[in-house]
Every structure is written in C-alpha cells, then in structure tokens.
Amino acid sequence: NAGVTQTPKFQVLKTGQSMTLQCAQDMNHEYMSWYRQDPGMGLRLIHYSVGAGITDQGEVPNGYNVSRSTTEDFPLRLLSAAPSQTSVYFCASRSRTVEAFFGQGTRLTVV
Amino acid sequence: AQSVTQLDSQVPVFEEAPVELRCNYSSSVSVYLFWYVQYPNQGLQLLLKYLSGSTLVKGINGFEAEFNKSQTSFHLRKPSVHISDTAEYFCAVTSDTGRRALTFGSGTRLQVQP
Fold first, then answer.
1. How crowded is residue A70: how many other Cβ atoms within 10 Å of its Cβ?
2. Which of A48, A103, B33, B60 has the fewest CB atoms within 10 Å, i.e. the most exposed one?
3. Structural domain boundaries enclosing B36
4. What are the tens digits of pLDDT across the range A40-68?
5. For A48, which of B32, B49, B101 is closest by C-beta distance?
6. Residue of chain B minimizing CA distance to A97
7. DSSP classification of residue A84
8. Residues 12..31 of B with a Cβ closer than 8 Å to A: which?
C-alpha cells in the first residue's frame, strides 16, 4: 500500500516551459486535491476533484490545469511556467470520514 | 466558504514547558478539523483529528486538542515539549459538502529552545 505517490520530487523549469506533476493514490479515495505551499501562506488549494471526471478550481488556479480520468490519478499541468509558480506542491487524497493523506511533495523552481 | 486563522506565526518555548497553538475557524456547515505537523523539508503528517463525538481529542507525540463549537476554536496543546517538537504546525478544516478539500491556516512555527 503506497498511499499517495507524487513525481517528480524536484524539478527546475525555464520560464515558458510546460510540465505535468503526477499524483497517484491506491486507497480508492474519492476526493483528491492539489496545493501549493509558500512561506508564511500555509497550503493554498489549486484544484480539487470529488470523483473521476469531476474537477473544479480552488483558490489559486491560474496557470494550472487538472484532469481526473480515473479514481487513482490526478495530474497537475503547468501550461507556461512563470517564476511566480516556484513553490512546493502537494497532492492529497481522502475519503468522506478519513483524514487527508499527502504525497511527499514536489519542489519546483522556475528560472 | 471556510477559513482558518492561526493566531501565532511563531511560538518560542523552552524545553519541558507547556505549549498551546491557537486555531480558529469559520464555517457555515458542520466541520471536520485537523492538525498536521511538518518537519523541515518533509511532507505533512497528521497529528490528530476531530470528526465527531468527544470534543477532546488525543493525537500522536503527546499532543491533544479541544474542539469548542461556540468559540469556533480547535487549539492544540502539549503539557511538556521536547526539542524534537520543533516544526511547523498547520490547522485545517473540511466538511461533507462543497469542495471536500482541506482549507489550511497559515501555519505556526514552534521553536523549542534548550
């Protein structure tokens, strides 16, 4: 039982490049979400999903896309990377009465 | 919409002293409440959770928290801290409606000094 797996752990991008952060969970959780963590701001919700085929925007969605074609996978796409997207990204999954389980995070630097 | 306010961004405390990290939330529906801990350069680890029932919940590493619905608070306490408790602590809220994703506070950095 791997829990929530995020890849990659580290990434450096040039401004304007695109990439996909991968997130997979093996707990059959309905709810998945992506957060970014910046100093002094806690974790802010980027996008979330309440089930396969259903996604919606969180507090800071600009510059990011998501899809949820299966229960297990919830990739986050950066369309055209900007320095303001330098951050640590966390994926999480949970069920109705279960706490959220987090991946180990992706440290992204945009230069 | 839900929100979480962690009233202290940093809390310095001496080893073996008690500590309280404060958390207030706002929500128009029933909530689930959580405290997570993050050690340097690591992910988030669940300390404790309130889903329903007893308002005093006990977690790992000797931490406990009390849910106070009238004051919309969920303060975290430990009677005697250790150097190893130095970390960032996050309070979070969610519910069974709407996003069902966690809303986090901005975090409290606990610095335990010898």
1. 10
2. B60
3. 3-113
4. 888 999 999 999 999 999 999 999 999 99
5. B101
6. B51
7. G
8. none
Interface check B10 vs A, CB under 8 A: no
CA–CA min distance B42, chain A (Å): 7
Q: Is A76 helix (H, G, I), strand (E, B) or coil?
A: strand
Nearest to A85 by CA among A106, A55, A104: A106
Q: Among residues B83, B91, B103, which one has the least CA distance to residue B8?
A: B91
With 0-12 / 13-18 / 19 or more C-beta atoms within 10 angstroms meaning exposed / middle / buried, residue A69 is exposed
Of A62, A63, A68, whose CA–CA distance to A91 is shortest? A68
Nearest to B111 by CA among B40, B25, B34, B35: B40
The number of folded domains in chain B is 1
Residue carrying the six token digits 């997130």:
A23
Q: Return phi, psi of residue A72, to 5°.
A: -80, -30
pLDDT tens digits for B25-83? 998 888 899 999 999 888 899 999 999 888 999 999 999 999 999 999 999 999 999 99
